[in-house]
Amino acid sequence: MVVINRINLNRSSYLAITDQPDDPRLQSILEELKTRKKTFQTLVYSQPTNKVKLKKALLDQTIGCYLLIGATPINVREIVQTALEYHFTHLDMFIFEDEPSVKHVFCGCCHFIHDNVEASRFVCKNCGQLIEVSDHFSHYYHAVLGFPNIQ
Ligand SMILES: [Zn+2]
User: Fold this and answer.
1) How far is the CA of 111 from the centre of ligand 1 (A)?
2) pLDDT by residue (tens digit) across 86-105?
3) Measured in angstroms, how far is the CA atom of residue 51 from the centroid of ligand 1?
4) Helix H or strand E segment including 33
5) Of the chain's two ends, which shows fewer C-beta atoms within 10 Å, N or C?
């Protein structure tokens, strides 16, 4: 667990949004924030019932709050998009990455996001287009971009 040096520790308050109670990914960070006497809140998020709770929690935060987000890719997208609507920016959040072996690919043709892609090219299960997996990771979609292979 070496993510701590990638987290902004200079903010005054923190909100952790995760989809599992007592998320083990947060333990070392929580301890660090406690040592630094930072304000800290956690929200356990499970789609879609907690969307209202999420919006309320985001609204309740003071300016300069930093988000720590750990969830499945679908939930991460939902949480990030909601946070952006509530005037957080990508600099105000840290997203726990999945295992490096788990790759999510965005279909450049129909915008469907495939989970757990292992191949370098595959047929999109949503639009049927043959997709080439690029090396470009989109932080907006939290997925690798895939481009239609047109021949
Ligand atoms: Zn597609």
Assistant:
1) 6
2) 999 999 999 886 655 568 89
3) 27
4) helix 27-35
5) C
Please report which helix (H) or strand (E) contains residue 131, including its range: strand 130-138
**C-alpha 75 to ligand 1 mean position (Å):** 20
d(CA 70, CA 45): 10
Q: Residue 99 corresponds to which amino acid?
A: E
Q: Which CATH code is given to the segment(s) 12-95?
A: 3.40.50
State the distance from the centre of ligand 1 to the C-alpha of 145, rounded, in angstroms: 11
Distance 121 CA to ligand 1 centre (A): 12
pLDDT tens for each residue of 107-151 = 999 999 998 888 899 999 999 999 999 988 887 888 899 999 866
